[in-house]
Design brief:
heterodimer; A: 67 residues; alpha+beta; Alpha-Beta Plaits; two-stranded antiparallel sheet; two-stranded antiparallel ribbon; 4 strands; 22% helix; globular; B: 455 residues; Cytochrome p450; 5-stranded mixed sheet; 3-stranded antiparallel sheet; 12 strands; 9% strand
Chain lengths: 67, 455
């Protein structure tokens, strides 16, 4: 599974990093999110799918692997 | 699209609903109104307040809020641009002050946020946790030996107020100048006989803000005020009245909203003691989703106004330039197409993409502060007053939820316990020294370390 955060859509709600702190990191200055790595570790796929569902701006997308 | 393609007004506004969120009936019938509007007219035209659109459906609110190119937040108080009225419907008659960057459009809006973000990001906010824990500890210690507390007056009004002033760089002991007026100006109806006194308190607050701004310009000390005093906004130094609007926005956003969220959550847990025990027991996994669920359900700031800035069609409705629009975060949060059993609280809810901090470029800039302060207050109550019982007869909710869904009083009793530290006044003195010596209110770009409480 690969994950992307659209920087134009992300507004720094931080829910993704709360749900999947091993996958998303937040910018120190504005709190906007980006994936630590595009490749999602297998044991994090469920959390990433939940982050996708929970993003208020619908800024996260995944490809490949189970959603 | 060109305007020739526009339907006539009767056709454009055919989905009508008499929507008046400033009445007590709207608060009492919130669920029924929400269900009816979402089923019949997720975007409705209401004739109230000179006429305005109301968006209540989740998809509709989402699409509208994120269409920044067609929506304006501008409050043009001096009629220098297009005369737009900002985010409040109806426009308040009392004071003509632009409501900070929440009543601005980019690029100025973006410049202000860039100035303030390094003080309010998750990394910046986490530095304040020890200060907040100490404030909560002292607030509870004031009452812990009596077995009685008012969660509004004795806890949830105090902590956000003192922290907000600390982050701004205002002396902490001034919190009493700000606290009462900041709440009373929200919950007092305009025609109340108490209004002159509330206005007087508000003037006192503004006077102190101007005095602090002048003092910080002369003798700089770190904090949000210092950042504003030095701010370059789109190549200009903003006039003081504009800065006053920004400071009032920080206070309005920082005080009453977190109070509202915390007290509603505490009231609900008193009514659901099994859920309270569960949250306390499973807090490691449950505190984050429960916080989002209380945010979704109690939505302290229930909505925002906008002005349509250009003719457009969004979510199947044609809007015309200059028309007013109410985006209801609170109603969008109850849409069954996104939230199962939307009118029930589920502490472990998943997929909770609520809109309580707004959406798009105006997302609440203090959201990280709000969450942190809420969590510290609630967990401390769970630890030190685990069997508290709120007194329904003494609980006072704001009569209307047109501006803030808040509480004025929430008395409770509990099995008394031992004090563990100094009282509030002494603690505030200690924390002032800690703020000054460790320069806690610096932006995270300058200071990264957490506060250390040294008595």
């Amino acid at each position: 599974m690969k994950v992307k955060v659209d920087p134009e859509r992300c507004q720094g709600h931080t829910l993704c990093a709360m749900i999947a702190p091993k996958v998303f990191e937040l910018d120190e200055v504005d709190g906007h999110s980006s994936p630590i790595s595009e490749d999602v570790p297998a044991d994090q796929e469920a959390q990433v799918a939940e982050a996708v569902r929970s993003c208020p701006e619908q800024a996260i997308s995944i490809s490949g692997g189970a959603a | 699209m060109s305007t020739e393609e526009f339907l006539d007004d009767a056709e454009r506004k055919k989905n009508r609903f008499h929507f008046d969120r400033h009445t007590p009936e709207y608060r009492q019938q919130f669920e029924a109104v929400t269900q009816e509007m979402q089923a019949k007219c997720p975007i409705a035209w209401s004739d109230t307040y000179d006429g305005h659109w109301v968006a209540s459906g989740n998809r509709e609110v989402f699409e509208l809020a994120r269409s920044a190119e067609y929506l304006s937040n501008d409050h043009d108080v001096n009629n220098e641009r297009r005369g737009y009225k900002g985010i409040t419907i109806p426009t308040p008659e009392s004071m003509k002050i632009q409501g900070g960057f929440l009543e601005m459009d980019p690029p100025e809006q973006r410049h202000y946020r860039q100035v303030l973000n390094p003080y309010l990001s998750p990394a910046a906010v986490s530095r304040w946790v020890p200060v907040v824990e100490e404030l909560v500890r002292a607030s509870l210690d004031e009452k812990i030996e009596t077995g009685q507390i008012d969660f509004v007056d004795d806890l949830a009004n105090i902590v956000p107020a003192v922290l907000t002033l600390a982050m701004m760089g205002i002396p902490l002991k001034h919190w009493t100048i700000y606290c009462e007026p900041a709440h009373a100006s929200v919950y007092t109806p305009p025609d109340s006989p108490d209004m002159p006194r509330v206005r007087e308190g508000q003037m006192g607050m503004y006077q102190d803000l101007f005095a602090q701004l002048a003092a910080i310009r002369e003798h700089p000390r770190p904090g949000l005020m210092d950042a504003l005093a030095r701010a370059d906004i789109n190549g200009k130094t903003p006039p003081d009245m504009e800065l006053l609007g920004v400071m009032a926005l920080i206070i309005g956003g920082g005080f009453d909203t977190t109070t509202a969220l915390t007290t509603h959550a505490l009231e609900w847990m008193s009514e659901h003691p099994d859920q309270r025990e569960r949250l306390s027991r499973e807090r490691d996994t449950l505190l984050d989703p429960a916080t989002e669920e209380f945010l979704r359900f109690y939505c302290p700031a229930p909505g925002d106004g906008r002005t349509i800035a250009a003719d457009c069609e969004i979510a199947g409705v044609q809007f015309k330039e200059g028309e007013r629009l109410w985006l209801s975060w609170a109603m969008a949060n109850r849409d069954p197409s996104v939230f199962d059993n939307p009118h029930e609280i589920d502490l472990a809810r998943t997929g909770n993409r609520h809109h309580s901090f707004g959406l798009g470029i105006h997302r609440c800039i203090g959201s990280n502060v709000a969450r942190m302060v809420f969590k510290r207050m609630v967990t401390a109550v769970l630890d030190r007053m685990p069997d508290y019982q709120c007194d329904p007869a003494g609980a006072v909710h704001y009569e209307t939820i047109g501006v803030i869904q808040g509480m004025q009083h929430l008395p409770a009793t509990f099995t008394l316990g031992p004090r563990v530290g100094p009282g509030l006044d002494e603690t505030i003195e200690t924390l002032q020294r800690v703020c000054d010596e460790q320069r806690l209110a610096e932006p995270v770009t300058v200071r990264k370390a957490k506060a250390e409480i040294v008595h």
